[in-house]
Amino acid sequence: xxxxxxxxxxxxxxxxxxxxxxxxxxxxxxxxxxxxxxxxxxxxxxxxxxxxxxxxxxxxxxxxxxxxxxxxxxxxxxxxxxxxxxxxxxxxxxxxxxxxxxxxxxxxxxxxxxxxxxxxxxxxxxxxxxxxxxxxxxxxxxxxxxxxxxxxxx
Length: 154
Ligand SMILES: [Zn+2]
Fold this sequence. Notes:
The chain is built from nine helices and no strands. The chain is an all-alpha fold and 154 residues long. The chain has a domain at 54-154. It binds zinc ion. Zinc ion is lined by residues 45, 47-48, 50, 57, 62, 64. Residues 7-69 form the Reverse transcriptase zinc-binding domain.
């Protein structure tokens, strides 16, 4: 199955599937892409203030993202290990998709999709609402969201 179509097989809400579909085509409006178009963008990543923001950086490379993945390892150890070892969204996603399990409600692939989705949401809150949460704060948001989903799916 073509890799873009596989996104719709992930057990996740459609907004999260669509986010992953956009992410793996590098079509999110991150600062590197805004800069290439000559559009307004923030100079550096809002979480670490160190480098120009890109999709690879927000989801994988940023020290803040790494902290979130690290904290999520007690629930999704394989997904966290894959994320912590990957520097490109594409190789990360190919390996993450292989963690999908039949008959498991919250498999590691679903967990990873929601971590990435919440990292993107946090980035948007920082830019557009000037709000900042800790890595532990993001993790409790992710766990709450997944807990609700599990209830809804059961
Ligand atoms: Zn950063």
